[in-house]
Amino acid sequence: MMPSKILSPADVQHYGECVCFNLRWISRLVTKFYERRLGGTGMRFTQTPILARLAAGPAKMADLSDWLAMERTALLRTLQPLLDDGYVSRSPAARGRGWELSVTSAGRRRLAELQPEWEAVQEEVVAAFGGAKWRDFMAAMEVAAERLARN
Q1: Distance (Å, rounded) from C-alpha 87 to C-alpha 109?
Q2: Burial of 52 (0-12, 13-18, 19+ CB in 10 A)
Q3: Are 106 and 86 within 8 A, CB to CB?
Q4: Nearest residue to 54 via CA among 131, 94, 107
Q5: What is the CA radius of gyration of the chain?
Q6: What is the C-alpha to C-alpha distance for residues 127 and 17, in angstroms, rounded to an integer?
Q7: Using CB atoms within 10 A of its CB, is residue 111 exposed (0-12), middle (13-18) or buried (19+)?
Q8: C-beta neighbour count of 58 within 10 angstroms
Q9: Which of 15, 76, 23 is nearest to 50 (CA)?
Q10: How far apart are CA 16 and CA 37, in angstroms?
Q11: What is the spatial distance between Cα 50 and Cα 110, in angstroms, rounded to a whole number?
């Protein structure tokens, strides 16, 4: 067994530049910000993109899981309150296995109610990043996501 190497300050600094660490760090901060601002709505902010996606059309559970890059069990935990509240319905998929999810009329109304508050929070976060910098970052993330998904 090789002896452990003692990390130097330069090594520690190098880990502080870790892409994964920094993306998770800012993600946690942004999550807390959204939750503080949208906390009184009775919905978790992670549920609004799901409602919005389903408002565009039904989706298979597997496709939604892939779109969110989320494990299906975690997605089901996020979806369950939406199903319980009648905002989302599920039925056996027409083709293949699994479930097809749809937004209900109650879900569409709820999404419309949340829209103004979500847009205000979104504007604040984009402003914190800087509008043009945010658009550049989004473009870079899309390229990186495509590359990483292939590997």
Answers
A1: 9
A2: middle
A3: yes
A4: 107
A5: 19
A6: 24
A7: buried
A8: 16
A9: 76
A10: 29
A11: 12
Q: Which of 6, 144, 143, 118 is nearest to 51 (CA)?
A: 118
Work out the end-to-end distance of the chain between its first and last CA atoms, rounded to an integer number of angstroms. 32
Burial code (b: 16+ CB inside 10 Å, e: under 16) for 95-110 equals eeeebbbebbeebeeb
pTM for the complete prediction? 0.77
Q: Quickly tell me which residue has 């043009």 as its tokens.
A: 132
> Are the C-beta atoms of residues 93 and 60 closer than 8 Å to each other?
yes
**Per-residue model confidence as pLDDT tens for the chain (151 residues):** 666 778 777 777 777 788 898 899 999 999 899 988 888 778 887 888 899 999 999 999 889 999 888 898 999 999 999 999 999 999 987 776 788 999 999 999 999 999 999 899 999 999 999 989 999 999 999 999 899 988 8
Structure tokens at 121: 């929070």
